Amino acid sequence: MRPISFATLFTRIAFALLASLAGCQSMQDMLGGAPKPTAHVIGASIRGLSLENIVVLFDVEVENPYAASLPLTDLGYSLASGGKKFLEGTLTPTGSIPARGKQVIQLPATVPFSSLYAALKGMKPGAIVAYTADFRIGVNVPVLGRIDVPLSKNGEFPVPAVPQVELSSLAIGKLSLDQIKASAKLQVKNTNQFPLDLTKLGVNIALGGQEVGGSKLTNPVTLSAGQATTIEMPLSFSPRAVGIGLVNLLRGNQIAYKVSGSIDANTRFGPLSLPFSHVGNTAVTR
């Protein structure tokens, strides 16, 4: 058996003496002025962000004022916005808080956006959600047994929305039996309540049901909340490859299209990868 230190023995004896005292005052009352374990959130970071969910990692520091270590028994947490709870859970941690020391506990909370939409009626993709996170840390205190250390943290996180990507116009520069050259103007609109720094944009374009090419973003673009920008894309393809039917469609004033691809963007909440797909009709000019 490991020998018990004098400090630990003294703490246990002191608690035992207090427990044995007679009278109508409870031990909790007698220990009301004694130091208690404390905890606070020293960090909250986003470790995963997609169109389906978000992972928020909380760093919780627990301080033990006693001369004996405090084993962790359980961790409970809940997240709410505007008084409406949208996530709660419990964890069973291992280890203990060292005597008269501190320990940082990492608590990951995964928020499925489906449960968020169900709890917060009227909330739409692209919003920023202000939340309150409440924690309850259970520790095993000598003599007293299990006690809870409560704490709270306020913060915010995004619910990302896919930017709106449309083919606003198609200008035909050359239309012959050997080659078709055109200039496609894409309108990209940030539908989020936070800025997007576009670092990568890959686009595939189909006209009249036929794939005609694609392009990539050459220079980074910053879009503030709700802002739109126009990106010009050169197209060049062979009439033989797409067929005479598409060539005839391009002789008209309007054509059906599909744009699809993905956008990579940096945000103040972290990086995002956003796939998109849109179909519509656009004007054809010459």
Task: Describe, in plain words, how this protein is organized in 3D.
The chain is mainly beta and 286 residues long. The protein has 2 domains: 37-158, Immunoglobulin-like (Sandwich), CATH 2.60.40.1820; 164-285, Immunoglobulin-like (Sandwich). Helix content is 13%, strand content 59%. It is built from 5 helices and 16 strands. The protein has helices at 6-20, 27-30, 113-119, 239-242, 244-250, and strands at 38-49, 53-63, 70-81, 84-91, 96-97, 102-112, 128-141, 145-158, 164-175, 180-189, 196-207, 210-216, 221-223, 228-237, 254-267, 270-285. The strands form 3 sheets. Strands 9, 10, 11, 12, 13, 14, 15 and 16 form an 8-stranded mixed β-sheet that branches. A hairpin with a 3-residue loop joins strand 1 (38-49) and strand 2. The radius of gyration is 30 Å and the shape is rod-shaped. The model is unreliable at 6-11 and 13-31 (pLDDT under 50).
Tell me roughly what share of residues is in helical segments. 10-25%
What is the overall shape? rod-shaped
The whole-number mean of residue pLDDT values reads 87
Tell me the fraction of residues in β-strands, as a range: over 45%
* Named CATH topology of the largest domain: Immunoglobulin-like
CATH class of the largest domain: Mainly Beta
The helix tally amounts to: 5
Low-confidence stretches: 6-11, 13-31
Q: Classify the secondary structure makeup into a structural class.
A: mainly beta
Query: How many strands appear in the DSSP assignment?
Result: 16
Integer count of domains: 2
Strand and helix order: HHEEEEEEHEEEEEEEEHHEE
Question: C-alpha Rg, in Å?
Answer: 30 Å
Note the gap between the termini: 91 Å
For the record, the CATH architecture of the largest domain stands as Sandwich
